[in-house]
Write a structure and sequence with these properties.
The complex is a heterodimer of chains A (440) and B (190). Chain A is mostly helical. Chain A has 19 helices and no strands. In chain A, helix 8 packs parallel to helix 10 and helix 11 (235-249) packs antiparallel against helix 12. Classes of the chains: A mainly alpha (440), B alpha+beta (190).
C-alpha cells in the first residue's frame, strides 16, 4: 500500500475505533501490520526534483556564459577556465560524498551538475581550439565520463541522462549505408543496466524506479529501431514484437491497482503493440527475409554479414525473451494480458508465412488480431468496470476501422453512419462499465 | 567514506580532467611544434548550442583527387598527404590508408567519393567567434573571396596527423585585427 494510503488509514483509525467499527486491538494490529511511517528515511520527491532541475539550470547557465566565447581572453586563459565548472562540480561531489551522502537531493543534484560540467568542459576546449563539430564523439565521451557518477552516488538522474545520451549517439552514429556503428548502443546500454536493475529491485513501485523504467523503455525502443538495417527484411517486426511483448509481460509482480505511470513498461508495451499491429495492417509485407543470403553476404562483405548476424542474434534474443516470459505467465496460472503478449508468436507465424511466400497472410492476420485485441480489451474492461480499459478497447476498434477507411472505397454516407455508431458505442460502453463498477 | 569509494571517486575525477586536458595538450603541442599550412576558405555563419557562434569553414583542400582504380567507403579513415601549391596554399597530394612515415599529413574521414575526387571531412571546419563579431567576419570574407580578390585563408598547424587552427586571416591580417581596422576606417570615413 502506498505511504499516502497508509497515512490516510492511520488518520482514520481513531474515528473507526470511536465509531466502534474496529476495536482498539484491531487498530493496533493494523498499525503493526503496516509499520511506522518513516518520514525521515525517504526524501521528499519534490525536493529531489527541485535539486535536479536547479543543478541542470545552473549547469546550462554556465555553459551559456562560456559559449559566449570571450574574444578578449587569451587562449591559455580560456583553456584554463574551461576546467572551472568541472573542478567546481568535482569539489561539490566530493563534499557530498563526505558530508551529505545520505541526502538523495544532494546526491542527485550534485551528480547532475557535474555531468553538465563534464559536457561543458569538453565543449569549451572544443571552442577554444576550433575543433570541428563531431557531435558523436562529443556525446559519447560526455556520457562515458558521466555514467560512473550514478555508481558513485547511486543517483538516478545521471543514468537517465546517460540513456537519453546514448540514444542520441545511436541516432547520430547510424547510417543506412550499413557501417553498423550504432550496434555499439547495446554495449553502452549494458554499462548502464546495473544501476537501473538495482533501483528497480530495491523498490519496483518507487517513483525513481518508474522514472528510470520510462526512460529506459523508450530508449530501448529507439535503440532497437536504430540498430536495424534493411538487409534483415521483415525481421524488425519479429524483434519489435518480442521487445514489446516482453515489456508488457515484465510487470508480473505489479498488481493491477498500481497506476499506469508507475508501470511504464506495461504502458509502453501495450501502446507499442497496438501501434505496431496497426502499422502492420497497412503493410503489404512484400519484403522478403534474407535468411538464405547469409553465405552470399559473407562472401561479398564480411563486415556487412557480421553486422547482419548481430542484428539477427539480437532479434532472436528478444523473441526468445518474450516466449520465456510468456511461458512463465502461463505456468503461473495468470491469464490476463495474454492477448497483448500474443503479438510475439503472431509476428513469428507471420514471418514464416512471408518466408514461404504466403501473400497477404500477415496482413490478414494482423487485421484480425487487432480486431480481437480491441474487442477483448473492451470486454475485459466492461467486466472489471475499468474505464481506461473500456476506452482503450474502443480506441483500438476505432483506429482499425479508421485505418481501413483509408484503403477502401466506402461511400461517404456509410463512413458517416459508421462513425456515429462508434460514437454511440463509446457512450454505451462507458455507461455500462460505470454501472458494472457501481454494482460491485 | 569507505576507501574503495574514495579510490573510485579519484579515478572518475582524473578521467574527467584527463579527457579535456589531453585535448588541450595535443593541440598546444601541434600549435607549438606543427608545420604551418594555409588553407583557402569559404565560410558561412551557423550556431552551436553548446559552443556558441562559429564561422563554418568550407576548405578547398577538403576535395582531393583519387588515384585511378582506388575507391573509398563513406566514413573510412585515411591519411591525407599535404603539399603546397605554387601560390603557397595547401592541397591534398594523395590519400593513403597506412600512416606515412615521412612528410606532413592529416588523419581524416572520407565523406563520399564522386568519380575521381573524394570529399574529406577535415578535423577543423569551424572558427568560433564571439556572437557580435561572427557576422562581421562572414561579411568580410565574402568581400574578400570573390574570383577577383581571394585573400582569406586559415593558418593551420599540423603535427602527427592532427591539424589545429592557429588563426583566420583576411588580407594578410588576423581576422580580429582586420575587423578592428575596418571599423577604424568606417569611423574616420564618417
Amino acid at each position: 500500500m502506498s505511504k499516502k494510503a497508509i497515512r490516510w488509514l492511520y488518520d482514520e483509525l481513531p474515528n473507526l475505533v470511536a465509531g466502534q467499527v474496529l476495536t482498539a486491538a484491531d487498530a493496533e494490529r493494523l498499525q503493526d501490520h503496516y509499520g511506522a511511517l518513516d518520514d525521515d528515511g525517504r526524501p521528499s520527491l519534490g525536493l529531489v526534483i527541485c535539486s535536479i532541475l536547479g543543478a541542470t539550470l545552473i549547469g546550462l547557465g554556465i555553459i551559456l556564459v562560456f559559449a559566449h566565447n570571450w574574444a578578449e581572453l587569451s587562449r591559455p586563459l580560456r583553456a584554463f577556465l574551461s576546467f572551472a565548472p568541472l573542478l567546481a562540480g568535482q569539489l561539490l561531489v566530493g563534499w557530498v560524498l563526505l558530508r551529505r551522502q545520505d541526502s538523495r537531493a544532494w546526491c542527485e543534484g550534485s551528480a547532475v551538475f557535474l555531468m553538465a560540467a563534464v559536457g561543458a568542459a569538453i565543449a569549451l576546449v572544443g571552442q577554444t581550439y576550433h575543433i570541428s563539430g563531431d557531435p558523436e564523439a562529443f556525446v559519447l565521451s560526455w556520457m562515458l565520463l558521466g555514467l560512473p557518477l550514478s555508481y558513485l552516488l547511486r543517483a538516478s538522474a545521471p543514468v537517465a541522462f546517460y540513456w537519453v545520451g546514448i540514444s542520441c549517439w545511436a541516432w547520430m552514429a547510424h547510417d543506412w549505408a550499413g557501417s553498423g556503428n550504432q550496434l555499439w548502443f547495446w554495449a553502452l546500454a549494458a554499462l548502464a543496466a546495473p544501476p537501473v536493475w538495482q533501483t528497480v529491485r530495491r523498490d519496483p513501485r518507487s517513483p525513481r524506479a518508474a522514472f528510470l523504467l520510462w526512460v529506459v523503455g523508450i530508449c530501448l525502443c529507439i535503440g532497437y529501431g536504430l540498430s536495424f538495417k534493411q538487409g534483415l527484411g521483415g525481421g524488425w517486426i519479429l524483434g519489435y514484437g518480442g521487445l514489446l511483448a516482453s515489456f508488457y509481460l515484465f510487470d508480473t509482480g505489479w498488481p493491477q491497482q498500481v497506476s499506469g505511470w508507475r508501470r511504464p513498461w506495461h504502458v509502453i508495451g501495450s501502446l507499442g503493440i497496438v501501434v505496431l499491429s496497426l502499422l502492420l495492417t497497412f503493410e503489404t509485407w512484400s519484403r522478403r527475409a534474407n535468411w538464405d543470403r547469409l553465405a552470399e553476404l559473407w562472401a561479398q562483405d564480411p563486415w556487412l554479414a557480421a553486422h547482419w548476424l548481430l542484428q539477427s542474434t539480437l532479434t532472436l534474443l528478444l523473441v526468445g525473451l518474450a516466449f520465456w516470459l510468456l511461458q512463465r505467465r502461463l505456468r503461473s496460472g495468470r491469464r490476463d494480458g495474454l492477448l497483448f503478449a500474443a503479438v510475439a508468436p503472431l509476428a513469428l507465424v507471420c514471418y514464416l508465412l512471408a518466408l514461404f511466400d504466403v501473400e497477404g497472410g500477415a496482413l490478414l492476420a494482423f487485421n484480425i488480431y487487432l480486431a480481437v485485441l480491441g474487442v477483448g480489451t473492451l470486454r475485459s474492461g466492461l467486466r472489471s468496470g475499468r474505464l481506461i480499459q473500456v476506452n482503450g478497447g474502443l480506441v483500438i476498434i476505432t483506429a482499425l476501422i479508421a485505418a481501413r477507411f483509408f484503403d477502401s472505397d466506402l461511400p461517404f454516407t456509410v463512413r458517416v453512419v459508421l462513425f456515429i455508431l462508434i460514437g454511440v458505442g463509446f457512450l454505451a460502453a462507458n455507461i455500462l462499465a460505470k454501472k458494472n463498477r457501481g454494482a460491485k | 567514506m569507505k576507501k574503495p569509494l574514495i579510490l573510485f571517486f579519484v579515478v572518475i575525477v582524473l578521467a574527467q580532467l584527463a579527457v579535456p586536458g589531453w585535448m588541450i595538450v595535443r593541440r598546444e603541442l601541434a600549435l607549438a611544434e606543427g608545420a604551418a599550412y594555409r588553407f583557402r576558405t569559404a565560410p558561412v555563419d551557423p550556431y552551436d548550442p553548446f559552443r556558441g557562434r562559429y564561422v563554418m569553414l568550407n576548405l578547398e583542400a577538403a576535395s582531393a583527387p583519387v588515384a585511378e582504380g582506388e575507391s573509398y567507403r563513406s566514413g573510412e579513415k585515411v591519411y591525407a598527404l599535404l603539399e603546397n601549391d605554387d601560390q603557397g596554399y595547401v592541397r591534398v597530394g594523395g590519400l593513403v590508408r597506412d600512416c606515412p612515415e615521412t612528410g606532413d599529413y592529416l588523419r581524416v574521414r572520407v565523406s563520399y567519393q564522386q568519380a575521381d575526387r573524394v570529399q574529406l571531412g577535415l578535423p577543423f571546419d569551424r572558427y568560433y567567434a564571439e556572437e557580435s563579431i561572427a557576422p562581421g567576419i562572414e561579411r568580410a570574407y565574402w568581400k574578400h573571396s570573390r574570383q577577383q580578390q581571394r585573400d582569406a585563408y586559415v593558418l593551420v598547424r599540423v603535427r602527427k596527423g592532427m591539424g589545429v587552427i592557429e588563426e583566420l586571416y583576411i588580407e594578410g591580417l588576423p581576422v580580429l585585427e582586420f575587423i578592428a581596422q575596418e571599423q577604424r576606417k568606417g569611423t574616420s570615413g564618417d
